[in-house]
Each structure stands twice: as C-alpha cells, then as structure tokens.
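thread: overnight batch results

M.L. [08:02]
morning all. the overnight job finished for the chain we discussed friday. pasting input first so we're all looking at the same thing
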Amino acid sequence: QVQLVESGGGLVQPGGSLRLSCAASGIIFSIYTMGWYRQAPGKERELVADITSDGIPKYVDSVKGRFTISRDNAKNTVYLQMNSLKPEDTAVYYCRWRYAWGQGTQVTVSS
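M.L. [08:03]
and the structure it wrote out:
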C-alpha cells in the first residue's frame, strides 16, 4: 500500500521559514521523481518543485532562490525548505509520487 505522509506545515510570518517533509512507503522511492505541489484557495494546483531520482531539482519561477527541494533515499523522504516566505505562498502543499498524492499540509504566511 502506497503512503505519502507530509508534515511541517504551519503558520509563519512573512520572511520566515518552514521545512516540509514527505515520508513515502510502499514504493521503490529511489527510482522516481518526487514533487511538491500547492493549491491556494480558488486557484488550480500547481507544481512548486520536483527532484529527479538523480537529485536534479526544478522549480517554478515564483519560488526560485527561496525554496530548496531535496531527498534522502535512505529515509524514503523528500523535503521542501521554504525561506523568505511571502503571503502569496499560502496554500495547501502536497507531495506527489507519479501515481499518488499525499494528504496535504497547510502553509499559512501571515502577520
């Protein structure tokens, strides 16, 4: 059974940082690209960043220079380090494997 379990969301002030984690089970984690998506109220879900099995990252333009995606294949975990957070980063963040989604974790950036 495939499970993707996100953690690390919360409320943070503008300019602050959060680190999201996604622990995967039931898959051969190391051979797949893993991604982080987000969905803000009233908007479509969008790709934030992904990372290939070789560790090559890709980012949406709006988070370049602020967010860092990484993975630990020994722990079957993908991370999203988010720095210099802005109110427009407020969304539910989802971890994605090719065939499944996590349950999402809320990130709220507000003073």
